[in-house]
Amino acid sequence: MYTPFMSFFEEKLASGSAVLAPMAGFTDAPFRALCRSFGSAWAVTEMVSAKALAQGDQRSLEIPAPYPGEPDLVIQLFASDPGDAAEASRRLMETYGPSALDLNMGCPVKKVVHKGCGAELMGDPDLAAEIIVAVREASGVPVSAKMRLGRKANELSSIVTPLLDAGVAAIAVHGRTAEQKYDGNADWEPILELSGELAIPVLVSGDVTTAEQASLLRNRGVGVMIARGALGRPWIFSELNGGAPPSWPEIARIMLRHVDLFRARYGPGRDLRALRGHLSSYVMQHQEMTHIREALVRVLTREDVVELLLQTGLTSAELLPSETSLVLLDSVA
């Protein structure tokens, strides 16, 4: 059995902080920067196609682009061919030099599964192992895998063994099957049982929303990975370590910080269509402000967002950015 290089994942998890999971359409550089500012141990990029990267597609290469000086960059690949995965890994290393790479083995979306990628790899763990070896050897950095419990039932024991032989350095498991997608409740027990049998870090994903839950999981020896729980709530990483939830004025300032990070990354001339989903999620954390949600999904400019926030009773002074926000903006610009 190959002895994996685990220092990156072990060192980062030792802090006790949770990790931002990869989410297509959400975990771009601005959101990663925001979550890191609230204490996430690392933040995984949106998934990117190994095949597209191997074929030289420039647009795909831009998907995982880090913000300047982004620490602990972890890029997620979806792949079905070891050769493509190796070439994609080499290209990512030459361009961005990430600290680690991650293989998507859990995405249940049809357009991904039909390409033999994502959750489909759980049905062919030997192929997944070949891809991990290819990525590890081509990149020279640790490689993790993110999966679900199985396709229709718990298949973890049969899935994981070939990955261990291939040198996977960490495993994150969403506590639902691919068939469930996001229905029902996440089942953490099979993941906790798996963790007790493995020498590599194991992370639990799915339905972790409170400090009590995070503490319970850490005490059972697993790391915590947050996906949808961070949408509209990037401060969850602080809360899971005992931080106080923000007030509405603080949430409003965080929303504007997110807008400014977005504009710093993509240019002030770009409208906010791609950010509307994030913005509407923020008001769901403060029920008496949900009346502006419908308007938030139509905003185009920063001024539109400010106008709506002022309608909630806030003053212009309450929306001024903090010194911390300005430092964060400088790091992304």
Brief overview, please?
This protein has helices at 7-13, 29-37, 50-54, 58-62, 82-95, 110-113, 125-139, 156-166, 189-197, 211-219, 236-239, 248-266, 276-283, 293-296, 302-310, 323-332, and strands spanning 19-20, 48-49, 74-78, 100-105, 143-148, 170-174, 202-205, 223-226. With 333 residues, the protein is an alpha/beta fold. An 8-stranded parallel beta sheet has the order 1-8-7-6-5-4-3-2, sandwiched between helices.
3D architecture notes:
With about 325 residues, the chain is of the alpha/beta class. The chain has helices spanning about 5-15, 30-35, 50-55, 60, 80-95, 110-115, 125-140, 155-165, 190-195, 210-220, 235-240, 250-265, 275-285, 295, 300-310, 325-330; strands spanning about 20, 50, 75-80, 100-105, 145-150, 170-175, 200-205, 225. The chain has an 8-stranded parallel β-sheet with strand order 1-8-7-6-5-4-3-2, with helices on both faces. Strand 6, helix 9 (about 190-195) and strand 7 (about 200-205) form a beta-alpha-beta unit. Helix 5 packs parallel to helix 7 and helix 12 (about 250-265) runs parallel beside helix 16 (about 325-330).
